[in-house]
Design brief:
Layout: H1 3-11, H2 16-27, H3 31-40, H4 45-72, H5 82-110, H6 119-130, H7 136-146
Helix pairs in contact: 2-7, 3-5, 3-6, 4-5, 4-6, 6-7
Length: 147
Amino acid sequence: MAIWEWVLEAYARPGVPQAALALQDGHGQNTSFLLWAVHAEASDPALLARAAEAARAWDRTALTPLREVRRALKPALPPFDDGAREALREDVKRLELASERLLMETLEGLSEGHGGAHALVALEAAAKAWGKPPPPNALAALAAALA
């Protein structure tokens, strides 16, 4: 299954959005990178280092700026029309999702097949490659929700 279809399926599972956002917002992890690692069953440090470097560059260039704009547009901002502001926010949200999809498809191109790592092992290896790993229970919550 292609990564984007897998991600949409996975994100629809109970607990996945909450666990992924907790890792992103509470622990500085990149949700797209983590989900790619699970899909690719990745644990190879060299592959994860290359993928993390690409993801960090894309995060700085596209994902973080789009996410910040989307979040900034959430509250009312008088005198701007609420309907127009919300429509613009939805446009930015679509761009943010397109940016996440491009990142995941790019990372999928870096991984040649599946590495065989179970979800929690892949998450632990990816979190380590990303930087300061989050608490193990935060990774375990995402792994359990993805199971």
